[in-house]
Design brief:
By secondary structure, this protein is mainly α. It is 67% helix and 2% strand. It has a domain of 134 residues. Helix 2 runs parallel beside helix 4. The chain is globular and about 50 Å long.
Length: 204
């Protein structure tokens, strides 16, 4: 099993601290509406999970090259932009909070299940086939898309819908880029034959 270099570990410590800081900031937000408070708790929990996984993940057995990075990174950027463009969380309708909370919980559980196999960009670690990964191969992305859909509902604008469509397309590209790398592992190919759906069970 490869080990992370000192430089990679130092980078992960800084990244983890930054992510945890954003989570603490969400928890300290002075929201008054019950839906807003619960949505912010989910944000804090999700950031805490990601911060822990960044610091505890195993070293990659193989990483995607520049091409994989170019294909995967836009989905991260657009997703973050969509969250940033959403209106103040206090003004969200109940339906938006419901979608956001559901998506955040799906993402948090899925990422926690990944454990030491967690990655931000395409990388090959151990294959995980438990929890939500028994039904779809990328449940964390499904959760993130639900959170983005909540932002779209909250925005009540055609622009929000356009961003959502763009984000969905970029997530599909990201998944295909990741699977190109993951499929070099015979264990992942066997997993892909058992779990045929990538994002939405029964659809794709």
């Amino acid at each position: 099993m490869p080990r992370r270099t000192t430089g990679a570990l130092a980078f992960d410590v800084l990244l983890s601290a930054s992510i945890l800081g954003w989570g603490i900031r969400a928890l300290m937000h002075s929201a008054t509406a019950p839906g807003a408070r619960l949505s912010l708790v989910v944000v804090g929990v999700l950031h805490g999970v990601v911060a822990w996984l960044v610091i505890s993940r195993a070293a990659a057995r193989r990483e995607g090259g520049l091409g994989a990075l170019v294909l995967a990174a836009p989905a991260i950027v657009v997703g973050a932009a969509a969250l940033g463009l959403a209106p103040d969380i206090e003004r969200w309708p109940p339906a938006a909070h419901g979608l956001f909370i559901a998506g955040g919980l799906v993402a948090a559980v899925s990422l926690w299940t990944l454990g030491r196999s967690f990655a931000v960009l395409p990388a090959l670690r151990s294959v995980v086939d438990t929890g939500p990964y028994r039904w779809v191969r990328h449940p964390a992305y499904a959760g993130e898309l639900l959170m983005l859909a909540a932002c779209c509902v909250a925005s009540k604008s055609w622009f929000g819908g356009a961003v959502m469509v763009l984000a969905l397309g970029l997530v599909v590209v990201r998944i295909l880029a990741e699977e190109r790398l993951l499929s070099t592992d015979v264990r992942y190919r066997a997993y892909g034959k058992r779990v045929t759906y990538r994002l939405v069970y029964g659809l794709w």
